[in-house]
Amino acid sequence: MIYKMWQGFDPKRLMVGIFAFMFALSLVIHFILLSTTRYNWLDPDGNAAKVTTADMLTPMPATR
User: Fold this and answer.
1) Domain-located, residue 44
2) DSSP H stretches of helix in 2-62
3) CB environment 36-45: b (16+ within 10 A), e (fewer)
4) For labeling, which of 13, 36, 48, 54 is most exposed (least CB within 10 Å)?
5) Is the pLDDT assigned to residue 42 strictly greater than 70?
6) Is residue 49 part of a domain?
């Protein structure tokens, strides 16, 4: 019964549609990341936020 539904789809067109959708989605995600200061890997001036590992760490509380 369900196979009749799939007979209505052309596999070539379906694959091209999926490829086009995934390509457009990847472009959108990359442009969103490039618009942020933290994840912009193409910043020519180096004005992106410089976050080092030491900045992300917090000191441990003294237990003794």
Assistant:
1) no
2) 2-6, 11-34, 53-56
3) eeeeeeeeee
4) 54
5) yes
6) no
